[in-house]
Specification:
single chain; 331 residues; 60% helix
């Protein structure tokens, strides 16, 4: 073998793979299986790695360098080296699956997902694309996506408005890992298929909320995904174990982050649902909400607070009127 290397029958990269095989003490008979000048460097690399990990010939056949990219081969090899069976690796070792999808399907098995759960994930992936169209083809005129994978949001800055992309598959795997069933995930997807929404639902379920409870987080007129800041407010509310009724106020549609924060602050300060509902309305900006919340915390009666609860009054006018009511109260 070394003589052939010296004769120049192998390029430097090929020769390097042969040297590594010798350094790693592979038998000469094994090295000769991949030490062929006609084999590409990549083919020699993965054949060497396969033999070093004691893969069977059947497993080696799946490491087809003519079919898969180097990134895909890494996922196939990792499946075998991490203890997956041939049948499990064969499920995701398909040219149509890009590396991120291969990785998530591999990790699904490594995290204990059943064949049925992996088949469920594969069905979701297969529903995304028309695999007959190459998504990397420059000249194709038809989108490879069967379904709309991005849901725009006018004011969304979360970057999580995606439906059924690779990250969503990863999130579903997390749902399975905490004990949720396929039926549970189907229920979640019926409520919303957006990545950020599924993350929010998983978090709520781990906090003891039911599916009926978490539906209040996604009002029917909700548009797009919550921003990162809005999700932080909702995560905080869920951590406080607020009632579904109270959560519904924070999740009211057409509110911005600042408005949701003022609503949450009301509950944190000890206001009741009835009190917070006075100002938890999109017609009030967050400054007006703040004044109404302050009025309630100052001990004004509902009748007195209703005198301030006029969207046409600016927050400054509300503050002045609240001060006047307080002065008359202490006269």
């Amino acid at each position: 073998i070394l003589e052939k290397c010296k004769e120049g029958k192998f390029n430097k990269q090929q020769a390097f793979q042969i040297r590594l095989g010798l350094q790693h003490e592979l038998p000469a008979k094994t090295i000769l299986k991949y030490a062929k000048p006609s084999y590409s460097f990549v083919k020699m690399l993965y054949m060497r790695l396969g033999y070093e990990h004691n893969l069977t010939e059947k497993q080696m056949d799946l490491l087809d360098t003519n079919t898969f990219s180097a990134e895909q081969l890494d996922e196939i090899l990792s499946g075998f080296t991490h203890g997956l069976t041939f049948e499990q690796v064969q499920k995701y070792a398909k040219i149509k699956y890009t590396m991120p999808y291969m990785r998530h399907l591999r990790l699904a098995y490594e995290h204990g997902c059943t064949d049925e759960q992996v088949d469920f994930l594969i069905n979701i992936i297969d529903d995304i694309y028309d695999w007959s169209i190459d998504p990397f083809e420059d000249n194709h005129t038809v989108s490879p996506y069967k379904t709309k994978t991005y849901v725009p949001e006018k004011s969304c800055d979360c970057g999580l408005c995606y439906v059924d992309d690779a990250d969503t598959i990863a999130e579903i795997i997390k749902c399975f890992s905490i004990g949720l069933s396929i039926d549970d995930v189907e229920k979640m997807r019926q409520i919303s298929r957006m990545l950020s929404d599924i993350q929010l639902m998983r978090f709520a379920l781990t906090r003891g909320y039911s599916f009926n409870d978490i539906e209040v987080l996604f009002p029917k007129d909700k548009y797009g995904a919550y921003s990162y800041d809005e999700r932080d407010v909702l995560f905080h509310a869920l951590n406080l174990h607020l009632s579904p009724k109270s959560l519904s106020l924070i999740a009211t549609s057409h509110l911005n982050t600042f408005q949701r924060i003022v609503i949450l602050e009301g509950f944190l300060a000890g206001l009741t649902y009835k009190q917070v509902s006075v100002y938890a309305k999109p017609v009030y900006d967050h400054l007006q909400m703040f004044e109404l919340k302050t009025a309630l915390l100052d001990g004004l009666s509902m009748e007195e607070v209703n005198q301030l609860a006029n969207p046409r009054l600016s927050s400054i006018d509300m503050a002045l009127k609240r001060t006047e009511i307080l002065k008359n109260t202490f006269k």
